[in-house]
Amino acid sequence: MGSSRCRVWHYLNRNFFMKTSHFCTTVFISLAALTGFASEEQVLQNAFDGASKMPLNPHVKNRSRAQLQLVNAALAVKRADLARSYADEIVNWQKLVAYAQIAECWIDNREAVKAEGLVSEIEKFCLLAKEYHSEDLLVKPADPLLESLADWRLEKVHALLIGLKYKLGKTVSEKDFGLTDEIGLAQIQSAQVSACADQPFEQTFKELSFLALNPNIEIAKIGLFELSDLFDSHYSNKEQQEKILHVVDTAITNLPVVWRFDVKIKFADTHIENEQYSSALEILNELNAMVDSIDLQPRFLIPYKTALAERFFKAGQQETARAAVLEMENLYDEKRDFIVNIDRAALLCRLAESRLALGDKQEADALWIRAVKEGVINPNSRPRVDALCEISSSIVAHNAAPSEDLIFQLNKMNSDLGRPW
Q1: For the segment 240-268, what is each residue's pLDDT rounded down to a tens digit?
Q2: Rounded to whole angstroms, how far apart are CA atoms 44 and 396?
Q3: Distances from the Cα of 240 to the Cαs of 97, 159, 230, in angstroms?
Q4: DSSP output for 3-38
Q5: What is the per-residue DSSP string for 281-342?
Q6: What's the predicted TM-score (pTM) here?
Q7: Among 60, 310, 331, 379, who pairs with 357 as Cys (CB 3.0-4.6 Å)?
Q8: Closest among 193, 267, 203 to 235, alpha carbons compared
């Protein structure tokens, strides 16, 4: 699971970096020039240090969400150990969500011992939370994690825990099903099904179809995403493909547009991976028409259109893809003043990612730098942290070696953080 890149920054002590940001920024740029790239860890660490500056009171939720975003970025480039180091510093219930995602990554990489250790940690906190919120405990010490791990949050973490146990091949006792949330139970069922790799196709298909056709759209979404994975794993069998697609076409009509888009694009991705471009284009054209038929604001339209453009490019429609990205860039410029300033950095990141996918590295870097400039307009540091984490995650997750100018701008975003939050 480890990265193949050299960790040229391992000797830079984290606290030293924070206290001497100007010096470290200079060293960072100099080493980046010598090595040809900035390490993934350094880009993420700079953002994580920025997120960790956010005061817990009253920003514990915002800080934890930002830190979790960087955990996900580390996992996107298979840096599970780095993700674990970040997860350990999250103070509320999101720590356990991060642990669950890291454990799943280790399970997928056949590092069961590491995963089991995290599963034990999650289980320990779930048990402590039940005691903490029981009526028998009269004096409750201040604990942001246990305080927040209640109600639907506890149910969500508990569902993740049971799903991980299934994936590890553990025996799950009846007492583990003390859940009342039907969505959590559906998540457990899907985890149980996916853990049974040797189960015959018909049985798996039947169980997932039952979820996909559930009138509860949250449960239906779970089943549809699992069916897309089943479609991918049985791609060579046309008869099984047709069975899956029949259920998907029936069930998907009940979903909101955003979920329909997310489900269908997964099928397009599978076709592209198998070089069945005509089948992929059929789905992409359908989704493009669906998006065009809806009056969407730029903050929704740009992510949809850029996601489609990247796939059109992979499917051999380079001119269509490039035209779509340029159209969205022009739309952003035209509507920029009407877009809330806290939304601009994320939209520019989507455009940068698409430019990178099209092979336009210089243009991608320019868009990320624009994102930095938009991200520091707000006078409050909390939204600037959000922008810093968004941009840094975008760069790392897409394996983009940032330019020296971009590195400098990201480090300056961190060093300039402070009151007012």
Answers
A1: 999 999 999 999 998 999 999 999 999 99
A2: 8
A3: 34, 30, 9
A4: -SS--TTTTS-HHHHHHTHHHHHHHHHHHHHHHSS-
A5: HHHHHHHHHHHHTS---HHHHHHHHHHHHHHHHHTT-HHHHHHHHHHHHHHHHHHGGGS-HH
A6: 0.84
A7: 310
A8: 267
Measured in whole angstroms, how far is the alpha carbon of residue 320 from the centre of its chain? 27
d(CA 102, CA 68): 11
Give the C-alpha separation, 416 to 14, whole Å.
17
Distance in angstroms (rounded) separating the CA atoms of residues 158 and 105: 18
| Distance between CA atoms of residues 69 and 97, nearest Å | 11
Task: Round to whole Å and give the CA distance between 199 and 145.
Answer: 38
* Dist. CA 47–CA 392, nearest whole Å: 7
What does 350-388 look like in DSSP terms, one character per residue?
A: HHHHHHHHTT-HHHHHHHHHHHHHHHT-SSSHHHHHHHH
d(CA 221, CA 212): 6
Q: Is 58 left (phi over 0), alpha (psi -120 to 50) or beta?
A: alpha
CA distance 370 to 57: 31
All residue ranges of the chain with pLDDT < 70 are 1-38, 173-185, 188-189, 192-197
Q: Distance between CA atoms of 302 and 311, rounded to whole angstroms?
A: 14
What is the token pair recorded at 18?
A: 């924070």
Contacts of 57 (CB under 8 A, 6+ apart): none
What span, in angstroms and rounded, lies between the C-alpha atoms of 305 and 292? 9
Question: 354 and 338 in contact (C-beta within 8 Å)?
Answer: no
**Span 329-359, pLDDT tens digits:** 999 999 999 999 999 999 999 999 999 999 9
- Please check whether residue 363 is in contact with residue 403, taking contact to mean a CB–CB distance below 8 angstroms: no
- Distance (Å, rounded) from C-alpha 378 to C-alpha 417? 11
The answer to whether the CB of 417 falls within 8 A of the CB of 50 is: yes
User: How far apart are the C-alpha atoms of 357 and 308, rounded to whole Å?
Assistant: 11
How many Å apart are CA 240 and CA 203, to the nearest integer? 12
CA distance 331 to 96: 40
Task: Give the Cα separation of 84 and 420 in Å (integer).
Answer: 30
Cα–Cα distance between 186 and 180 in angstroms, integer?
Answer: 11
Give the helix/strand (H/E) hosting 112.
helix 112-132
Residue 97 to residues 116, 160, 235, Cα–Cα distance (Å) = 15, 8, 31
The DSSP output letter for 140 is -
Cα–Cα distance for residue pair 409/391, rounded to 1 Å: 11
